[in-house]
Amino acid sequence: MLLSRNSFFLATVALLALGFIALASVVTANIWLVQRTQTFAKDATDLRRLRNAAIELRTLVQDAEIGQRGYLLTGEDDYLAPFNTATANLASSKERFERAAANDPLGKAEADAPSLISTLQAKMAELGETITLVQRGERERALEMVRTDHGKELMDRARLTFQSLIGRTEDGLSELAAIQARSAAALWWVSVVGGFIVIAATLAGIGTILVYLRQLAQTRLEIQGLNASLEERVQERTAELGRANEEIQRFAYIVTHDLRAPLVNIMGFTAELEQGVAAVQQFVGNYRGDTSDAAYQEAAVASQSDLPEAVGFIRSSTRKMDGLINAILKLSREGRRTLKPERIDLAGLFNAATSAVAHQVSDADGEVLTDIQAGAIISDRLSIEQIIGNLLDNAVKYRRVGVPLKIMIRARAERANTISISVEDNGRGIHPQDLTRVFELFRRSGQQDQPGEGIGLAHVRAMARNLGGDITLNSEFGKGSLFTLSLPADLRALLGSDKA
Predict the structure, then answer these.
(1) CA 304, CA 281: separation in Å to the nearest integer?
(2) Would the pTM of this model clear 0.85, i.e. be above it?
(3) Which of 88, 140, 422, 495 lies in the 20 to 30 Å Cα band around 352?
(4) What is the C-alpha to C-alpha distance for residues 477 and 130, in angstroms, rounded to an integer?
(5) How far apart are CA 379 and CA 200, in angstroms?
């Protein structure tokens, strides 16, 4: 089954989500179980400490009782050693027991501790008193005191408390051991099941990726085959377009050349006509005959008014036509010119361009500022100089009267290895409906109070596109214009050349 990009994406996301959920579950369960195990381990440690403290305290009291009985029976001081040792260690043992009882996880030892301690204190006092009586020689009285069974009752009571307390701690330890065993088993199962799910999701993901990669490889082979035929078709179309472009340029050159020939004739005959008109004017001015004659009056009007006006219109039209022909020839030659990529320092190029209009800018009380945040560019120097020069000339020509001229030139390095060059002015601006027209050949916008044929911006756009870029315009009428030129940073990549 073929995998589409969306199905591959959804399958991969689903498998990753499943693996992540399984892994997160394993990690969460492990953390919870480890924390629980740590809690149980602490409880077990506290219970063992309590049991050991109780056993130690019970042993000391029993040793004390054994020493007392031996001394009572024999009267020899050697039998008092266990009693003396127990008495010396009783205080520290009792303190350890009380601390352990206070930390009892079962919460019962702390309640039993006061009564147990008081019982033990009473028992030790009874043992000490009997020993003291024997040491004073009142052995019978000491034995009578033992026969009252008061000491035995105290010991039995303490022994039962110890037995209950130690039994509870051992039961608690057994229960904690069982819980820890169950936690370990749960941890094992969670790890195994979670690991199995993670491995299964990983294998499924790898399988999906391999299937998709195999399809991509097949698609790449198909695309390479298509690209091979496409490149041939593109080369054929490019060659056809190149030939068509050459034909258009050749046609434009031939047409303008053929137009120039009759235009030159017209201009020549116009010059002869001007000489003829001058002769007629001289004749009329020197005429000594009857000036009231109708024929003379008509000749005088024609020579002094009609003919000069007609010749003037012819001259104006031929000059305009000559300018248009030159403009077409200029565009034709620009299309045929070979571009020469070279490394261009934008700061130096902008300084040279602003120096060329410095006098006009000074006359307008203006200034030209630059903000360059791009390195050198590899392109055709002449084309860029003409583009920047044309934009600066327009900014100077179409400034607002009475407003100090301000021009800002910026250069920025953009993404995709392009350079953005903008020229902004505070001049007249352009009507919104004329924003695209101004780039058309022989089209002008606004008040026509400046000389020109309407070719400048058309020439600028042609040069920009010839360099592999383009130019755009943003303008607000009455406030100024912003021309933005976008060019490749390295023209050699477009031309397929490595020369700089």
Answers:
(1) 6
(2) no
(3) 495
(4) 122
(5) 57
